[in-house]
Amino acid sequence: MRIALFGNPNTGKSSIFNHLSGMRQHVGNFPGVTVDLKLSDIRIGDQTHQLIDFPGTYSIYPRSNDEKVVYEVLRNPQHKHYPDLAVVVADASNLERNLFLFSQIYDLGLPSLLVLNMNDIAQRNGIRIDVAKLKEAFPGTQIVEANARVGFGTDRLKQAIQSNQIQKAAKPFLDGFQVAAIENTSAQSEEAELRFKKIRFLLSEVLTRDVKTKQEGNLKLDRILVHPIWGYFIFAAILLVLFQMIYSFAALPMDFIDAQFAAFSEWTSAHLPEGNFYDLISQGIIPGIGGVVVFVPQIALLFFFIALLEESGYLARVVFIMDRLMRPLGLNGKSVVPLLSSVACAIPGVMATRTISNWKERLITILVAPLMSCSARIPVYTLLIALVIPDQKVFGIINLQGLVLFALYALGLIAALGIAAILKAFIRTSEKSFLLLELPSYKAPQWKNVGLTVWEKVKVFVLDAGKVILAISVILWVLASFGGEEKSAAKIASLQESPVYMSMAEEDRSQIEASIRLGNSYMGQLGKGIEPVIAPLGYDWKIGISLITSFAAREVFVGSLATIYSVQDDGEQNLPLLQRLRAEKRADGKPVYSLATGVSLMVFYVFAMQCMATLAVVKRETKSWKWPLIQLLFMGVLAYLGAGLTYHLLS
Amino acid sequence: MDRLLVNVPFLEPVRIKSIIDSPLKPKLLEMGLVSGQELRILFKAPFGDPIAIEVGDYVLSLRLDEARLVEVVS
Asked: How far apart are CA A610 and CA A259, in angstroms?
């Protein structure tokens, strides 16, 4: 049997899904659908059923692209995913609005099962539901009372599914019901009025209230959390704690992963036989995978905290207080979470834009998200800051290096918001922006749901970013390993004639030779090729090579410089690399890494779209190459002009 | 007296008279803003927009632009 799960947002639908699926789920590939649907094969008794989790909606009529899939599947019995049974999860504490969707699905002639979830909250609010009477209004259906938060009612839900006693409606709940076309909003309005009238009449007989306690407890909390002044302070404080925790907690596992991959790469190059194929594994593929995995702790932590805020009900309040501020920029209160996520990595940030129903606001959020300084930029920033910014105090207390780091983050944020305001004028849409958002009551988070969310996000990141970064790593490895072999061999041979050179340690010699090979390789030729273009920014061909290798992932910049200047990359303090870079002189005897060049490079990394994995995700989310190319272009122009201007102002 | 939801003071209970015709009308109705429904404004975001209202058994936030589509009576 094919079982579909429907329900309003915030009804505990995902908890029901998790209980039924027993956590065995996968993300389904539905052609033409903007959202990922979760699928699971579930076993009840001796039968296996397919469970499909549809996006949370308030109606069968779509109000955003994400919701279209519900309408398309439900009104077409020939559809590949048309269900044999619809399980509709309803919030028992808010039955009136929840019955709206259930009665629509019932009226479509689908065998439907109603789950009255969150019974405990309904009881606490003094709401009593006469289930037998409710069932009379929907002949053929089954009603199961549940409290999925504590797992109550799931056995009875399984029994009800197994019983096979659920039948199609003989006649619709709403007399003379007919499905309206998506465009026919007046028919939909008429239906909504009539349907609610009938539901309210039904509930006057089915539902009784003891006392009217309602929202008072939430209201007190909301008075503080969305307070005109304290609201922003509290949000800022939460953000501060969040990022502090992400960076401090993630540092240890990240260092560990980094060290493991470096050791593994070294081990393989020492133990595998010589040859291109084995070099590819030890120098291309293993560091490539390491470059993805190293960000997992940060992304997992970020999503852990975001899931906590979401589950508790606070995130909806963030959307609420930020909406007015984001609107003039062509964004939406819901853009805050994607932009926040992008501080760890733009890939989950871009994917988090799916909650924004308005296409224009979603697109603008996607386009500016990569301008937020992501964690892959941190190694680049810290190296460059240590290189050109003196370690001194300003105003006696503020560390100048820290101030510059903060300024780089601020520059990214300002650019993101500013570009959003500009894009607002250029992107046209007929779709009207609106914000009709339910503010769920505050509740303690469910750890199982939080854990699953984190697992899902990390999985998608590793697979999505992993594929692209791996592919780019291989291409870059080929470019860096081949080309100019004769030239390099001649140069190395001439060096080897010198007794001074031969008296050097073998390690140092092999690094110098690697540097010569890289300089003559296709990659080196590319770097020299773009030198005229990047010279106005204060860069030479060696920096050019590092800029190109950064397209796999920005943090590769540091490793590339280490190779080019033939120093052992020690990963952490970069001390030998710093000394080597400081000693580097131009033809006229001035240092290459002057203040102007260093800051210009930092500005370049703030703006430039040096992340193929993000471009690939943007392509997938916008369903066309047009937007990632536009993004690559405007960020590139911004980076080039910004870096050029910085170089000229400082030199 | 007829008036729009935007002009209602905090916590004053009002009843929806109708929703002004617009592309958003069916969406507002589906969220439970049908005629006869009782509601009250619970709180507002900083800058007074959006607002949060109690509709039946839940809290809905909507922008002032959307609240201008809701005609209410005391």
From this structure: 24
A21 touches chain B (CB under 8 A): no
Interface of B with A (CB under 8 A): 19, 23-32, 34-37, 42-43, 45-47, 49-50, 52, 54-63, 65-66
Number of H helices, E strands in chain B: 2, 6
Q: Is A123 exposed, middle or buried (0-12, 13-18, 19+ CB in 10 A)?
A: middle
Tokens (6 digits) for A198: 């009938």
Are A97 and B58 in contact (CB < 8 Å)? Answer: yes
**ipTM for the assembly:** 0.94
CB contact at 8 A, A70 and A57: yes
Q: What gap in Å lies between CA A631 and CA A612, rounded to an integer? A: 12
pLDDT digits (tens, 9 = 90+) for B15-47: 999 999 998 999 999 999 999 999 999 999 888
* Measured distance CA(B17)–CA(B37) in Å, rounded: 8
Burial class (CB in 10 A: 0-12, 13-18, 19+), B27: buried
Smallest CA–CA distance, residue B9 to chain A, in Å, is: 16
Mutation target to probe the A interface, by most A beta carbons within 10 A, among B22, B27, B30 is B30
Q: How far apart are CA A302 and CA A457, in angstroms?
A: 10
Asked if A336 contacts A321 with a C-beta cutoff of 8 angstroms, the reply is: no
- Name the E strands within A58-189: 85-91, 112-117, 127-129, 142-145
- Picking from A527, A475, A517, A523, the residue whose alpha carbon sits closest to that of residue A495 is A517
Distance separating alpha carbons of residues A495 and A602, to the nearest angstrom: 36
- Sheet holding A47-53: strands in order across? A26-28, A37-44, A47-53, A2-7, A85-91, A112-117, A142-145
Is A561 within 8 Å of A581 (Cβ atoms)?
A: yes
Helix (H) or strand (E) holding A430: none
CB B52 within 8 Å of CB B60? yes
Q: Please judge whether A222 and B43 are an interchain contact, meaning their C-beta atoms are less than 8 angstroms apart.
A: yes
Could you read off the pLDDT of A411-460 as tens digits, one per residue? 999 999 999 999 999 988 877 788 899 998 888 888 888 888 888 888 88
Residue B4 to chain A, least CA–CA distance (Å): 17
Cβ neighbours for A157, distance < 8 A, ≥ 6 positions apart: A16, A19, A20, A87, A113, A115, A144, A146
Which pLDDT tens digit goes with each residue over A521-571? 898 899 899 999 999 999 988 899 889 888 877 888 887 887 777 665 555
CA distance A534 to A540: 7
Of A94, A333, A439, the CB nearest to B52: A439
Look at B26 and A61 and tell me if their CB atoms are within 8 Å: yes
Q: How far apart are the first and last CA of chain B?
A: 7
Question: For residues A647 and A641, what is the distance between their CA atoms, to the nearest angstrom?
Answer: 10
Give CA torsion, residues A98, A100, A102, A108, to 10 deg: -170
Enumerate the residues of chain A whose CB falls inside 8 A of the CB of residue B61.
316, 320, 435-439
Any chain B CB within 8 A of the CB of A100?
Answer: yes
- The one-character DSSP state at B74 is -
pLDDT confidence band for A101 (50 / 70 / 90):
very high
> Among residues A94, A95, A55, which one has the least CA distance to residue A74?
A55
